[in-house]
Amino acid sequence: MSQPILNAKITLASAYANGSNWDVVFSMVDAEGLFGGTLVAIGDTIFCDTSGYALGTISRYKILSISAQSFSEVSATVVFDDTGTEPDLSYALGLDGFISQPTPNFDYSIMPSIGIQGLPDKFLVYPENSNWERIDGIGGGGLTGPVGNTGPTGATGVEGSGGVAGVTGPTGNTGATGLDGNQGNPGATGVGGLTGVDGTTGSQ
């Protein structure tokens, strides 16, 4: 049993040019109740009705970043991801479109269930035609192949030669001779000893 893939109707609420990208806000409603805005991820694609800019056109955009998301609304930055001339996305304001998760290898669009989501047939036909263009390489120069394996790590480089020894610096100056110390004062003369008592004369 295959698992359901992100797919829901959106309505573009705002679109402001930001360099080569667009800052957009869109509401999101899945009639089956399976998917909400909190499941939207970078790399998902939105399809907008740009027939107000160029009659009969639908344009595909890829989500580059997400600044805010709730179950029913998403604020994101998107980039034009389609063939032909990029339209002014502000012409799609208030119009329905849809969001889907592309295939991982070749970025093919997943078609919506237009009956369940309440979308006109053109939202089924256009993504299918877009997929055929990608398969056939129209306007894209062929399909991009899968990413190759990482190559082996290169050999460690040879150690560089040692640097040249620096020049010996000059000998420093001899320090100054210190001052002679002061001569000490002579010591005090000691006190003379006492004369001893004469001894007693002996008897005859």
Q: How many H/I helices?
A: 2
Question: Which fold does the CATH topology of the domain at 7-136 refer to?
Answer: Elongation Factor Tu (Ef-tu), domain 3
CATH architecture of the domain at 7-136: Beta Barrel
Order of helices and strands: EEEEEEHH
| Classification by helices and strands | mainly beta
β content, as a range? 25-35%
Q: Which sequence of strands runs across the widest sheet?
A: 1-2-5-4-3-6
Instruction: Report low-confidence residues grouped into runs of 5 or more.
Output: 140-145
Helix content: under 10%
Distance, first to last CA: 156 Å
Major pleated sheet: 6 strands, antiparallel, barrel
CATH class of the domain at 7-136: Mainly Beta
Question: In terms of topology, how is this protein built?
Answer:
Blueprint: E1 7-18, E2 21-29, E3 45-49, E4 58-69, E5 73-80, E6 96-100, H1 114-117, H2 122-136
Antiparallel strand pairs: 1-2, 1-6, 2-5, 3-4, 3-6, 4-5
Task: Explain what you see.
This protein has 204 residues and is mainly beta. The chain has a domain at 7-136: Elongation Factor Tu (Ef-tu), domain 3, CATH 2.40.30. The chain contains 2 helices and 6 strands. It has helices at 114-117, 122-136; strands spanning 7-18, 21-29, 45-49, 58-69, 73-80, 96-100. A 6-stranded antiparallel β-barrel has the order 1-2-5-4-3-6. It starts with 6 loop residues before the first strand and ends in a 68-residue tail after the last helix.
